Amino acid sequence: MHLFLLLTLQATAAFGQIDPAHCRYALGMEDGRIKDEDITASSQWYKTTGPQYARLNWEEGDGAWCPQGQLEPSDSQYLQVDLGRLTFLTVVATQGRYARNSGNEFARAYRLNYSKDGLLWKSWRNRLGNAVMEGNKNAYTSVINDLHPPVITRYVRLIPVTKVSTTVCMRVELYGCPWEDGLISYSAPEGQLMMPPGYPIASLNDSTYDGAHERRRVTHALCTHGSFSILNGYVEMEFVFDRQRNFTSMKVHSNNMFSRGVKIFSSVSCWFKPRLIACWEAEPVSFKTVLDDRNPSARYVTVPLNRRAAKSLRCRFNFADVWMMFSEISFQSGNTHTRTRDTILPTQMTLVVTSPPVTSYPPDDVNTPILIGCLVTIILLLVIIIFLILWCQYVCKVLEKVRRETTDRELKDSIGTKLSLKKQILKLDKHIFLLFLTGCGGGYAEPDVTQCTPHQCFHSNAPHYAETDIVRLQGVTGSNMYAVPALTVDSLTRKDISAAEFPRQQLIFREKLGEGQFGEVHLCEAEGLPEFLGEGSPLPERDGQSVLVAVKQLRADATSQARNDFLKEIKIMSRLNDPNIIRLLCVCVSSDPLCMVTEYMENGDLNMFLSQREIESTLTHANNIPSVSLSDLLHMSVQISSGMKYLASLNFVHRDLATRNCLLDRRLTIKIADFGMSRNLYSSDYYRIQGRAVLPIRWMAWESILLGKFTTASDVWAFGVTLWEIFTLCKEQPYSLLSDEQVIENTGEFFRNQGRQIFLYAPPLCPPSLFELMMRCWSRDIPNRPTFEGLYQALRPHVNQ
Ligand code: ADE
């Protein structure tokens, strides 16, 4: 029997606390911060096409870097940039040689090599294993490539690639941010497949890992030596830091899943090495965990490290069961006198390890039985899926029968009738109602036109969301398309859009703010926008600086459905006008790609903003830690209630109110938005029903989940959850201890209201009266929930004027 060792070092893991979606700053080719001497090349054609001319948007010299002679398909000419320090590189932009209309050379494709030390070079590959990126199609337009995965590097080489002999020239900009995490390497057992009996196979390898692979263990690229092993009943991990630190503690987020044999570790011992070239100190720090067999929740285990000084640590985790599963490991350290924020080392990783008594690494040919095992399991899974599909069809028939047996009359009478039917269905099987939601149960919920979006109001016969194909729930940019009835592509045209058409050539790209399945959000400078908008322009004063705007752009290859949804979003947004709702300024829809231009909110989204702050105290002041006061939090809550009050006054249902959808400008004014494009960031907040719909279930009222009923009252529920997020400083996802399936089960408890439902806890920061207000937002009976007007009136007096 083979025992599997399993490990994940995920992208977030390796990348610590950097968020790739926000780390996209120009690194200095265009603005000259990268000096000429740091830009080199394998060759140059002339002096005037040397590497120093490879700067994006520059026309100096002969307008670009061009390697010598014709580039052949077998050539490896490169342009090299030394970024001066380790950098988290996320985006590359390239341009050809335009030279004020006298040049026409460009690279149609290129590869990227990178190196942390200038000696050991790695080839960048995307997650599908492709190394070649699409380059330019003409000499002047810059083409941007997102690095998925991003890389941590100091040296970068761009290597133009060609299929035929040709001359190439390049100008480039690199985007990213400084890599400041103190951890420079880790070593841990290599990931494999998790095949617990009765559960799906999970491959938990680190697809972004760029270190060396040494027989069944991974050693991070910079690790000089990383010998650790899985020995009888324990696993060892080694961490190397940039400099010596006094470690106060290690926090390990460890999971418990008793039914799957996963338990937190029983004890851990850590050894310390003061310098890289030194022996491990004999005396370890050991810590025994308290194993509580009644409490199955995942938890942080804080291991005191007694302020031991070290540059490297090696920790041995002892198993308490068959598996250990770590989601995150962070180290806290301080210098000898004070404990300051910049010495806190955030280092995240997800690690799942089995505890077989593996004493040596198996030979390579063990892969064959593993492969056979995988294949057999895949076949078994396919059989199970086919069985489930057949079973689903059977259940659908049963539901249809139940539906028919319930007369139309009864259904229209009251929601109570609907609920009792739901109850029957829920009793049938807790999973069946999920199938029902996906539409296979057929719809029986009546369209509710008492509250609806503007679209629904003039399409009151539109089918209810629960009956519609919910594949498109998220809309093109994630905006409120959930239940907007289908308009045909032809039915939405330019004349429906009241926002003015802006000349797109006056939008100058600055950086990428977000990206989603259907498009991207860019930060752009908008030349002449104040004059274009004329008097009463809502733009903030920029003191002579150019105007910055956020530009959402639909992908050129978007389907006509996505296109139509994009236009619908524009149409809705162009009707909204409130200080706490994001403002649509203008559009570019007369040609492709379709763009909508909104205000730029300098402080990004509220979730990110709060999660990076602590509550204001003397400690935060003394240590310069970014903070917010309780009064700031209340002011934020009032602003959101005010924006929602406005939406409610228009009978507009938001459907996805959450801190991730609230943006902050530089004065901390909050504006409600709904940016599905940036949702890649928050995908874990959405639940995918049978691969078809994405639903923010942790923010949804019970009736939205069970009946597909979205109203202002269900927005009030989501507002309660948003308040909860604000007062926990977005440090935790709502119901973080419940899986998505358990959240849905809990929704059933909310519906049954027999006192078994789990409520979100009162955040310690939250005044009791405010928590009472949240609890009222989560009233089972819809009329008992407050209105947004009521919420606004209740919250406003708490804010210092
Ligand atoms: N991300 C998406 N839209 C944005 C905006 N308007 N301002 C800042 N960041 C954004």
UniProtKB/TrEMBL annotation:
Record bears the keyword Disulfide bond: yes
Source domain of life: Eukaryota
GO BP field: positive regulation of neuron projection development; positive regulation of phosphatidylinositol 3-kinase/protein kinase B signal transduction
Domain F5/8 type C: start-end pairs: 23-177
Cited InterPro entries: DDR1-2_DS-like, FA58C, Galactose-bd-like_sf, Kinase-like_dom_sf, Prot_kinase_dom, RTK, Ser-Thr/Tyr_kinase_cat_dom, Tyr_kinase_AS
Catalytic EC class: transferase
Membrane topology: Single-pass type I membrane protein
UniProt keyword annotations, A-Z: ATP-binding, Cell membrane, Disulfide bond, Glycoprotein, Kinase, Membrane, Nucleotide-binding, Phosphoprotein, Receptor, Signal, Transferase, Transmembrane, Transmembrane helix, Tyrosine-protein kinase
Cited PROSITE patterns: FA58C_1, FA58C_2, FA58C_3, PROTEIN_KINASE_DOM, PROTEIN_KINASE_TYR, RECEPTOR_TYR_KIN_II
Cellular location(s): Cell membrane
TM segment ranges: 370-394
Signal peptide start and end residues: 1-16
Predominant location category: membrane
GO cellular component, as recorded: plasma membrane; receptor complex
Reactions performed catalytically: L-tyrosyl-[protein] + ATP = O-phospho-L-tyrosyl-[protein] + ADP + H(+)
The EC number(s) this enzyme carries: 2.7.10.1
Span of domain Protein kinase: 507-799
Molecular-function GO term, any one: ATP binding
Family: Belongs to the protein kinase superfamily. Tyr protein kinase family. Insulin receptor subfamily.
Annotated protein name in UniProt: receptor protein-tyrosine kinase
Organism: Mola mola (Ocean sunfish)
